[in-house]
Design a protein that fits this description.
Length: about 675
């Protein structure tokens, strides 16, 4: 038995529980069964995890099989953001109890201080001003009724906790938050402890969905590894034991039975005081040095914010009336790092957590979320085929226009000049490094695992950077090191070995995300089958006349973001167009552009965004760079989007370099004329 912490209700919450977030419905039952047999007595779930019915079936089987009794299990679920209205709260717990096949919950939490319209998903249009006191009043009635034997909150900052505690008749028993060695939540922990609120930690090893990109992970942190070696334990066990000794229950998640058992083996030993001091001191310091404002950038991204300076500026800037949306998620992030949100700058409105955003749309591009938790801007400047003597001016113009992604590669033969442009931007104060997303690539001649670290180091030196936001394998082709692309220089690729070296770069922090380029469906499936760290991005040529539907669907289903180079087509594209037209001269593209009073290029780029892919147009003309960026304050209606499916799709030339190759091909000429 794992023991327990005492809640302010007198109930006991087990020290360790199984988290079910991100566990697929078809395997969550087996994970729960294995966990309970291993000794776990707490199961944490939520409607938004989309597996609660399967959790209920697993619980029913456990009770029927006599593995455990209901009174011996502690079950937590949560109230979703769309059910905050007091009249919706009883219905929400009723649905959860039905799904879980239970009569009561041991703990019911408000999932976060965010409210959206009922039945919708979070977006700019669906945010509503939260009324936590009213929602909490309905939660208290559930506690009175016995349907929830304890009530609490999740993802509440110190300020939100203080606000709730000031009005609560029944104080929250628990605040469940992300908490681990690299996000130790000291201020929040101390507040909760002083007010009798138990802190429970989800993602106690960190998480791919965590808003902390670019920071060395818990399990690869050298201090954690050192302590684990001294105690002859795994880094995961050390991280869990640290949490318990800090007084918080923990909710690791796993579907692997051996890992589930290993995670539970943390009760017959402890971390000595001197090592606890190292973990609570040096590890925390390493996180602080990694720019905590990143949390705001990542949490606020869906609403258009890029960084604290932008948020403070636009919140204090007088704006027009009539187009207000909630930005509660930004307020949460601001409060987490101790900076008070700016007051509502415009006309009176029911919530102070409101900000005008439609005026930002042309300026703030937002972002797509990668599977690492990082955000990739929806538009970037491609630097392929841009001459070295003009690439710097193009980058400078792009960044001043609002671009926040620069895509480059050693094979473009202009990377040193890209680096000089970035250095000038930083030195001139035009932008800070943390606000730019920089991508580069591993060339074909550097696929040997021992060559990969040297390749990224050369790139970082050329770019005058300490890390890359994204590092891609340039293609599933390998040549002899130091040679050019030709038949006699080809080698059999070993993508598995190359990817292993890429994963080490991700672990080290030199590449904050890793991915691939020019990978077809089969190559993607092969890589995903062996990857420890799945690719975050597949960058391919993609546009209205080569829509890559099969590849897009595969990537979306596996959590890989599709990024489109040459989104307007390219003179160097490896395509022979079936329709006989280019992207910009395609009659359907032109027709849509005329109806929307936009240029064909803007329509093609906007199509890409609405298909869920980031786009990387390239240009050296400042006016064109600005025009390409003007795609965020309008959209293509559904009926016109449907027209794009009527466009005849291009086909690859038989000799395209990434198709199976024969020795009779002139690869040097293909290299010159192919999009890379």
């Amino acid at each position: 038995m794992a023991g327990s912490f005492v809640l302010n209700t007198g109930a006991r919450i087990p020290l360790i529980g199984l988290g079910t977030w991100q566990i697929e419905p078809d395997v969550v039952g087996d994970a729960i069964y294995a966990a309970v047999k291993a000794g776990y007595r707490h199961i944490d779930c939520a409607p938004v995890y989309r597996n609660e019915k399967q959790v209920g079936l697993a619980l029913k089987k456990l009770f029927e099989d006599g593995v455990v009794r209901r009174e011996d299990l502690f079950i937590t679920s949560k109230l979703w953001s769309g059910d905050h209205a007091p009249e919706d709260v009883p219905e929400a717990i009723g649905t959860t109890l039905k799904d879980l096949q239970l009569d009561f919950l041991d703990l019911f939490l408000i999932h976060g201080p965010i409210r959206i319209k009922k039945g919708t998903t979070p977006s700019l249009e669906t945010f509503l001003p939260p009324d936590i006191p009213a929602t909490w009043g309905a939660m208290e009635k559930l506690y009175d009724s016995g349907k929830a034997r304890a009530i609490g909150v999740s993802n509440f900052s110190s300020k939100k906790m203080e606000d709730l505690l000031a009005v609560a008749r029944v104080p929250p028993a628990v605040n469940q938050v992300e908490c681990h060695l690299i996000w130790q939540q000291d201020k929040l922990r101390k507040l909760c402890h002083s007010r009798g609120v138990h802190l429970s930690a989800f993602s106690p090893l960190g998480s791919p969905g965590s808003p902390l990109p670019g920071i060395i992970s818990v399990l690869s942190n050298p201090i954690v590894i050192s302590v684990a070696e001294k105690l002859q334990k795994t880094p995961a066990q050390v991280a869990f034991r640290w949490g318990l000794q800090m007084g918080q229950s923990i909710l690791p998640k796993s579907t692997n039975e051996a890992r589930i058992k290993e995670n539970f083996d943390i009760f017959d030993w402890s971390i000595p005081k001197d090592l606890m001091a190292e973990l609570s001191g040096k590890v925390a310091e390493s996180r602080i040095r990694s720019s905590p404002s990143k949390r705001l950038q990542n949490l606020g991204g869906p609403l258009g914010w890029r960084n604290l300076k932008d948020m403070n500026f636009f919140c204090s800037e007088q704006t027009e009336e009539g187009h207000w949306v909630a930005y509660n998620i930004c307020v949460v992030a601001v409060e987490r790092i101790g900076i008070p949100p700016q007051p509502n700058p415009g006309p009176p409105y029911p919530s102070s957590s409101i900000v005008f955003l439609s005026c930002l749309a042309p300026k703030m591009a937002g972002s797509f979320i990668l599977n690492t938790g990082a955000r990739i801007p929806p538009i970037g400047l491609g630097t392929w085929q841009i001459e070295p003597d003009v690439v710097g001016d193009a980058i400078y113009a792009a960044v001043k226009a609002g671009y926040r992604h620069i895509d480059c590669a050693p094979a473009y033969h202009n990377q040193k000049q890209v680096g000089l442009a970035l250095k000038k931007l930083f030195e001139d104060g035009v932008i800070e490094r943390e606000d730019l997303f920089v991508t580069s690539k591993l060339w074909f001649g550097d696929h040997a695992p021992e060559d990969v670290p040297e390749a990224i180091d050369t790139t970082l030196k050329d770019l005058h950077l300490g890390f890359l936001d994204l590092f891609l394998i340039h293609g599933p082709v390998r040549i002899k090191k130091g040679t050019t692309l030709s038949p006699e220089n080809l080698l059999p690729p070993d993508i598995t070995a190359t990817w292993g070296a890429m994963e080490k770069l991700y672990d080290s922090g030199k590449a904050r995300a890793i991915g691939v380029s020019n990978f077809a469906c089969k190559k993607m499936e092969d890589l995903l089958a062996v990857a420890r760290v799945p690719p975050a991005v597949n960058q391919v040529e993609c546009h209205p006349i080569w829509q890559q539907d099969k590849l897009r669907k595969l990537c979306q289903s596996r959590g890989v973001h599709l990024s489109a180079y040459s989104p307007l087509g390219s003179p160097g594209s490896p395509l022979s167009v079936v329709s006989g037209t280019s992207v910009l001269s395609n009659p359907i593209v032109i027709s849509v552009a005329e109806k929307l009073q936009k240029t064909p290029a803007q329509v093609a780029l906007r199509w890409g965004l609405q298909m869920g892919q980031s786009v990387l147009p390239k240009s050296i003309d400042e006016a064109m760079i600005k025009e390409n960026y003007d795609i965020f304050d309008w959209s293509i209606p559904e009926d016109l989007m449907a027209k794009f499916s009527e466009i005849k799709q291009a086909c690859l030339k038989p000799q395209h370099m990434f198709l199976p190759m024969s020795h009779g091909i002139d690869f040097s000429s293909i290299f010159v004329t192919s999009a890379i």
